[in-house]
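S2.1 Query sequence (poly(A)-specific ribonuclease)
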Amino acid sequence: MLSVLRVHLPSDIPIVGCELTPYVLLRRPNKEVISEDVPESAPVDGYFLRYKWYRIQSDKKVAICSIHPSEQATLQCLGCVKAKIPVTKSYHCSPKCFSDAWQHHRVLHERAASAVNENGNEEEEIFGRFNSTGSGVINSSLSSSQSSGSLANGTTTLYPAAVTQRNGGETWFEVGRSKTYTPTADDIGHALKFECVVVDAETKLHIGPASTLLTSRVIPAPCPTPRRMFSVSGVDIPGHLDLDGRLSSSGTFTVLSYNILSEAYATSELYSYCPSWALAWTYRRQNLLREIVGYRADIVCLQEVQSNHFEEFFAPELDKHGYQALFKRKTAEVFNGSINNIDGCATFFRRDRFSHVKKYEVEFNKAAQSLTDAVVPIAQKKTALNRLVKDNVALIVVLEAKFSNQGVDNPGKRQLVCVANTHVNVQQELRDVKLWQVHTLLKGLEKIAASADIPMLVCGDFNSVPGSAPHTLLALGKVDPMHPDLTVDPLGILRPPTKLTHQLPLVSAYSSFARMGVGLGLEQQRRRMDPNTNEPLFTNCTRDFIGTHDYIFYSADSLTVESLLELLDEESLRKDTALPSPEWSSDHIALLAEFRCKPRTRR
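Output C-alpha cells follow.
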C-alpha cells in the first residue's frame, strides 16, 4: 500500500501571496521512497493523494505586528488609519518597535496624503496630532471591533469556504483542495492546516489516517519604504509609480539595474541574520517581482538570474506586464552544480516603448582563450586559463525607440540605444581579472559605437568599488599607470598600462546627484554619496561588506540624466540589520535612472 512517511514545509511562516508547496515523502508497496506528486489522474500502485487546506479561525481576534510578524500587536498607528493605509501596516508589538519604524510611517503618510489631498488639509490634520503629542498610537488590547476588518479583509477565497469543524474556540474553514496553496489577505492572523490522505483509486475511500501539518499565523508581505525619483533640477517627483504618462509624453526613458541575489547564493550560512522565511525563494521571488514591476522601468537589467527562474518565473511574469525578455547564462566551465542553477544576466524592455534590433553575447571565457593563445607562453597557458576562466558574461542589446524625442532635427531617423548588462567576477583578489573583463567589454562596445551613431548604457554589478581600476577605466577612459590595482598582474595581461583606455564618453548616472541644485531632498541624497568619488556610499549592504559595486554608466555626448531613484541609507534599512531582509529581498539595492536622448545635429 502507498503510505505517507512525512510532510513538511521549507518555512512554517506563510506570507500573503507566496505559494506554499509542502514536501510529501511517500513509500510504495515495494519499499521504494518517492517524493513525486500522485494525483487522481495518475495513480501509483492503485492509489492517489488527496489534499485539503484549512484556515483555522479563532473566536478571539488577533492582530500581528507589521515589523515582527511572530509577535502579537499591542499598538496601532492612528496616522495610518487616518490616511487609509492598509491596516495591517499600522500594527506594532511595542513602543520601541513603533519608534524605530516612525520614519517609515512618515513616508507612508506623505504618499497617502499627497495622493488624495491636493490642498494639504488632511495632511496637516494628521501631522498636527503627531507633532503635538509625540505619538500617534492606540495603546490597547485591540478589541474585536477594531481588528476584525483588517483580519477578515473581505470574504472572497480561492475556494468556496466551508465550515468543516468546530473545536472549542476554533473554526476550520476549507480553503483549498490542491497540493499548493497561496495565502490571501483573508488568512492574515490565522494558522493554516494542510491535510494529505492516501485514497484507493477504485473505491475512492481513504486508506489510513490523514497526515497533517500546521503553520504559524499568516503574515502580510512586509512593505519597504517607498523610494522617490529626484529630478536633476532639484524638484522632487512625488512617487515612482505614476511615471508612465510623463515619460511617454516627454520622450525620456528609464533604465533599472539590479542584482537580485540568486537563490543558489542566498544561504542561511551567508545571511544568518535574515529570517529563513524571508530568505526562501518562494517569498523572495514575489517580493522582487513586486519591486521590479513597481518601478515601471522601460529597460530592466538584472544580474544573478538563475536559468530556471528566468524561464519559469521572470520571463512569463514580466511578459504579463508588457516586457520582452532576453537572457545570457553564464558559461559552465567552472560551475559544477545543476545547469538550472547557473545564473546570468537578463535584460527586459517594454514592448510598447522599444523594439529589439540586435543582441550580442560576450563570454569572457572565450576572450580568455583568445588572449592566452596570443600572448601567454604555452608552458603558462594552463595556469593563465585557470586564473582567467571564471564563467562571467555580458549581454549587449541594441533597441529602437518607439517614442519621439523632442527637439530632434531629423525625426525620420531611427533612435537606437545600446544597453550592456554584465556581472563582473566577484573574487576580490583577482583585480587583474576584473579589470581585464571590463576592458574587454568596453572594447566590444567601442566597435558597436564605431558602426553606428548610438547612445550607450553600461549597467551591472562590477564587483568593483569607486576608485578601483575597473571603475576608473569606466569613468575616466584610462587608468593611471601607478594605480595600485595594476600591481596585481601575474600574467602580464595589463601591460603596457597605456593600452587600458577607451574612447566612449561614459559618465556614472548617480554622479549627477553631486551636480544637482539645492533642496532638502537633494541634500539628503548628497549625504548618501561619497564626496571623493561622487558615487553612492553603498549599493551592496551585508553584515560583512557595505560599499558600492553597482553602476549605470551612460554616454554623455548623446544622453542626459533627467532624474534618479533615491538612494537608501542605513536608517532606511532599519537599525542593526543588513540585506537581504524581509523588506528588501536582495543584498543589493536597485538603481534607476531616467534619460533623454540629446538632439543630433545634421551631418
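The longest helix spans residues 431-451. Confidence is low (pLDDT under 50) at residues 118-160, 238-249.
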